[in-house]
Amino acid sequence: MLEVQHLHKVYPNGTVALTDVNFTVNDGEFLVIIGLSGSGKSTLLRCINRLIDPTAGKILWDGVDVTTAPAGELRRIRRQIGMVFQQFNLVKRSSVLTNVLAGRLGYANPYLSLLGIWPPAERERAQRALTRVGIADKAASRADALSGGQQQRVGIARALMQEPKLILADEPVASLDPVLAHSILQYLEQLNREEKITVICSLHFLDLVHRYATRVVALKDGQVVFTGLPQEIDRARFKEIYGEEAIEVRAGMAES
Amino acid sequence: MLNALASLFLPGLGQFLAGRRTRGLALFGVIAVMLGLIIWAVTPAVGGAEADITFKGNPANWRWLIVPTLLWLWNIWDAASPRPVLIPVIAALIMFYVMGWQATEIDLEALAKNFDRALIILRPMFRPDFLQPKADRLEAWVELEVPCSPTPPAGANTLVGTSLSLSAGCASVGETLTLTAGGLWPDSDAELVWQSPIGDFFALREPGTTQPVITRTDSTGRLATRFVVPKAIPPGIDPNLPQNQRLYVRQSKVTGGYELSTNGFFVLKGIYETIALALMATTLGTLFAIPISFLAARNLMSANALTLGMYVVVRTLLNIVRSIESLIIAIVFVVIVGLGPFAGMLALALHTIAALAKLYSEVIEGIDPGPIEAIRATGATWLQVARYGVVPQIVPPFTAFTIYRWDINVRASTIIGFVGGGGIGFFLVQWINLGDFRAVSASFIAILVVVMAMDVFSARVRERLI
Ligand SMILES: Nc1ncnc2c1ncn2[C@@H]1O[C@H](COP(=O)(O)OP(=O)(O)OP(=O)(O)O)[C@@H](O)[C@H]1O
Ligand SMILES: [Mg+2]
Fold first, then answer.
1. Cβ contact B265:B443 at 8 Å
2. Dist. CA B201–CA B198, nearest whole Å
3. A89 vs B374, B379, B381: nearest CB
4. Which residues of B are less than 8 Å from A98 in CB distance?
5. Which residue in A51, A75, A93 is closest to B396 by CB distance?
6. CB burial class (10 A; 0-12, 13-18, 19+) of residue A201?
7. Which of A39, A142, B236, B452 has the fewest CB atoms within 10 Å around its CB?
8. 3-state DSSP assignment of residue B340
9. How do residues B21-43 score in pLDDT, each as one tens digit?
């Protein structure tokens, strides 16, 4: 269970990104965070595994406070939390296999991993993760030789290497076309349903939110303006979250 | 109309008043420079160096006034109503080019006129002095004194197996002596070579010709020949002072195959020194450039005012060092550590540090923070993040730049010897001064081969890495 309590984030340049954010995520949920660009979605997700240090507030992961965890403890927390990014964030010059193996660094022998040596068991695990996302044949390719959709699957395979209990996905499909968007989100949904991995995912398109979310948190100017089920977001709520002039756009092909 | 009037009195003034300031200033500047140049060109030259500039003081240069006059008129027209700028630009360019042509004293005639001089240099260059036919060599010598002193040497010398004797142990320049020799190879040519008091060798010539003195031995290996004592005292030494000199008899028997000539050996030594020098300079430069590049990377140094200040200082220093030609740095190091490859190596290393640190720092500035964030998120330690997130992003471009730099350093070190920095250039400049163009061409070929090989090698490796 993840509890976010009174979370504040002010960037060093004075930008107030999050103000008193409170919510709870139960195990097994597929929580979607929505909000306008600049509303603080990325900031919130990065606070959860402390890629960004929050200014105030608490984040309890299974009862342990992430915000005050010492370095070693923080790394043990991080390795249970997989992360998937909009820009995939692969090391472009490295092979797909190396990128996937990097997901295992939190468990690996620190010295051998620095030499680039991986036990056969871990290599097999990486190969299985790639098979799982359907690109087993690309293991030896350079990461930047892959298409966007394939790169995001490598990103998911890397997260899978962590045997995560929670996956944070920051707009995982924003740089993909609608067909690919669904295929990527279906992988996340499958992990959520079959392996009971909790997913927290920020999304832009409301039709995707309706299709995948079990619960929604909406941010506006760094504040939570809505928490509830996706079907509760009616026209009035929509205007409240996105502003008066907003018109809904769809990613499309919901059942492809 | 008022603007046109203003521009009539001062070029560009009308445009300036009308708010077209850049054009106004440019017009004024160009016309002022033109008039200045014309005045300079028609003023007669005074003193030494200036007199060499052939067109100075030529009243015909006044005709150039046409261009600024036309420009002045155009300027008035433009002030009245803005015109496209193309025509005055072309007019100004033509004028500057013609004046530039005269200032560089371009003399196409000289190119053709002195072609025969070039041939003297070019002809030996077609026979590079690198390999020579393999041969067995036999050498014998005898000492004599020029001119005579009261106690001249014996005029005879017996070495292993050979004996030489002269009709006299001393003589004056121009006297004819007889040489008798025994113990040489039978029935073969022998060359007479003179050694001057300071150790230089030159072949004896038949009097009045450029033919070397060559005689043949008889079937018992004996030889008797007359020769004229040459003038071998270098200028600056009193020719009346008796000095010991030597007459050599040399024979050689071609045995088939080729071997390195003496100069060929020096070419190899020089080119080896050049490559080693470049390698050492690149290595040393890289070692220093890596840490410095981190200080010169803006993204790492913009955290606070102190580091930003360091960044500015480091960057400025790098730019200054980089803008000094390594040949000039080499001169300074020759003064500090003396002639030789070490001075050249230091100069190249210094230049390499500046050049590579800048290139490296740009690689560091271009690092994608995304993968670093992603690897941090997996629970990796700081070292693991560096190994998996940073190293793969910087090592290939660093290596590519380093090899490219080695390539550049090989080229640079071929000429750094010209100022005493060691390597092939050191030999090359001496051969040029001695007029030994066969050796010069051998070193040209060696440089060409090495530079081309480095070029291909570095291009291949970089292709792989990027
Ligand atoms: N490193 C930073 N330094 C200063 N301000 C930042 C930084 N990162 C984000 N911000 C600001 O914080 C606010 C929230 O940004 P954040 O990236 O979390 O929004 P977002 O909801 O993810 O937007 P988007 O949908 O465009 O990704 C914005 O106003 C942004 O300009
Ligand atoms: Mg974002």
1. no
2. 9
3. B374
4. 388, 392
5. A93
6. buried
7. B236
8. coil
9. 888 999 899 999 888 888 887 88
